[in-house]
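[recover] target loaded
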């Protein structure tokens, strides 16, 4: 009996020690949350344009065109270039020549500030973009 008891005790100790050694792993700590994604910066807000501001296309003067900010002058120049292309019935335009036409028109305006801007762009279109 002593042998049986020793065997039972020994097997109980061994199984207990194995159970103590080989325990199921504790649940792993949760992975840290991903770093917060920075929200994109809001786009700059343009100043509101005045409502219902009418500008006469044919009567705006060269002087007024030259008083505009560089961005507004560039926008007006593109508008007048397109306006002239439509008036001349153009179906295509040499895009590389547009800066030259705009420069021509601005030089004309500097020399003739009292003339309509549309005239400056008509002349510039004929000189640089017309076929």
């Amino acid at each position: 009996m002593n042998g049986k008891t020793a065997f039972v005790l020994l097997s109980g100790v061994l199984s207990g020690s194995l159970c103590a050694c080989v325990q199921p792993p504790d649940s792993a700590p949760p992975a840290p949350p991903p770093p917060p994604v920075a929200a994109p910066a809001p786009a700059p807000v343009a100043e509101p344009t005045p409502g219902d501001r009418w500008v006469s296309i044919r009567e705006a003067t060269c002087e007024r065109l030259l008083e505009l900010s560089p961005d507004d002058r560039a926008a007006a120049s593109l508008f007048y270039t397109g306006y002239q292309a439509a008036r001349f019935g153009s179906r295509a335009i040499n895009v590389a020549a547009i800066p030259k036409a705009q420069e021509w028109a601005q030089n004309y305006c500097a020399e003739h500030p009292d003339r309509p801007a549309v005239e400056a762009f008509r002349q510039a279109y004929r000189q640089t973009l017309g076929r």
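[recover] notes: The helical segments are 2-21, 62-67, 70-87, 98-111, 117-129.
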